Please model this.
Amino acid sequence: MLAVTIAGTVGVAGCGNSGNASSSTSTAPIKLMTIGPVSTPQFSLPSIPVGAQVAVDEINAAGGIDGRKLKLITCNDQNNPNTAAQCARQAIEEKVAGLVGGLETYDLQIMPLLEKAGIPWVGLTTPDDYTSSNLFLLGGEGAPTYTGIGLALAQQGCKKIAVVVTTAGGAEKIGAAQISAGVRAGGAQVAGTFTVPASAVDLASTVAAARSAGADCIGAGTGPAQSGPLITAVNAGAKLKLAFASGGLPNVVLQQLGKAADGVLAPAGYLPFTSTDGVVPQLKQKIQAKYPKVPLDQFAETGYASVKAVAQAAKGLKDVTGSSLKGALTKLTAFDTGLGPVADFSKEGSVPGFPRLFNPKIILWVAKDGDYNLAQPQPIDTTPALKLLSAK
Model:
């Protein structure tokens, strides 16, 4: 079993009131928060706050936002719904202007709290809610990424695709439906849907069942703790093409697998860190210099892009609060993140049921030698698969 527990090197706030809520002045720091499983017994993603912190440092070094500095608060939700709710309450008590990036599998439970407080969330990675006016999604979120798994495999020539999902969170129902929609939209057939417990360490029987169903490929909605065992089980027999969400097979796991994961596909929202385009090389250099033990992955990128989008939207505001920032974000257009997505929050998404999905395109990665590379230059438009979901 792969140990996915890297000690974070970024300071993580506790999930309670720190007693220093910002006042509505022109000089107080503008507070932002990022939430996610930065450190948990199952798996840890210490990369969640690092990109956001790099962006905060860059903006502060350049004078802040109209002279006001940014302050990033990181709340470790421990992959626990109760702790996630505590993080949301802390954001309200601290009077943060917005949430940025992060990985949150319990957004349905905490979004009502943030909506009532008027706090926007930019760049949430795995939302189940695509209708809240408080959400400003940059790209590579749950629905386009999961439908992208099925679409990518179908476009790679797969004919019968087994869908393998974990029983944790909403993946068993929501993730399976999304991957299956991608398979169908790509013209392939779903060979069957197979579930694995979140605690599973041996997936040989699951892979055997997929083979028996005639699958030539597997679309996986598994978490980091199951992704390594799934690849190991597949490699024990005849080769099956595999695709994961990049968050389900993060770089920390990929590095441990090395060549064993070569050829695995991963839809993502951003360019891989091996890219030389945009600001990717500069961001990579800054993260490695300040956080050398933290893996480079999409969570770092979405944090960076989210803070930059917030800073752009907040320019010129008399006071940066949740409500004023939310209004300013609705006017943000053609903002190039430098990492792939170009943000336009001025009009809602056109796919029925997904109004807060502003970017339905995903970028396809491929694993090689323990790292991700760009699999193809053109992104995949997941709109056809999303429309299948919304038609239900």
Remarks:
- The first helix runs from residue 50 to 61.
- Residues 55 and 308 are 6 Å apart (CA to CA).
